[in-house]
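Q: Here's a chain of 198 amino acids. Please give me its 3D structure as tokens.
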Amino acid sequence: MAKWWEYPAWRRTVLQVTMWALLGATLGMAAMVSSYRSGSINAKYSAPIACGKYVVRVPLGWKIVLHPTGPVRVEAFEQKRVGGRPRRLQFYERQLTESVTAEDVLLEINAQPGSILREDDTSHLQDVRIAGMNGTMFVRGYTRMVAIISLVPVIEYSAAVVSPDGASLAVKLVCEGDPDDSDPALFGELIGRIKLAD
């Protein structure tokens, strides 16, 4: 093996620069691949939107519809989606007068009539933290009939929390089409950005 002092100074410098350039290119490529794979995780978010006693945010570029009355207070639709999979986001807010758990709120928003053809066995409850409080998350998959002979797989991510004073908030992310690895991460980011209003 050659010794470093056997090379002229200019050649040692060229070798060191080449090694550092290869290391930088490797790290840059890894960051780019990681950014591409995480997709929605690094999404930018809208300004805070008041939703009763809570403040919510939606990804930038989504069409936001505010409803002053009714169970759904904030609704957002993804404008453009690679692969054409539409995603819809809904925030349900209600002041409760009776003692209700987050599980009860989830059952209420998921019991709405729809064009569900068959249920899959992908439903399960998980504990989550929303606005610094204990909440519940629910994931379900089903197939929806779009046309007479066309079936579309749908995955819904729902989470709910009830504050000690009875203010409930439920969030639902509806994803149509083939499952996407970025959907659970996006939903986690969305519920992680929910705060109590000042």
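Q: Can you summarize the key feature?
A: Confidence is low (pLDDT under 50) at residues 113-122.
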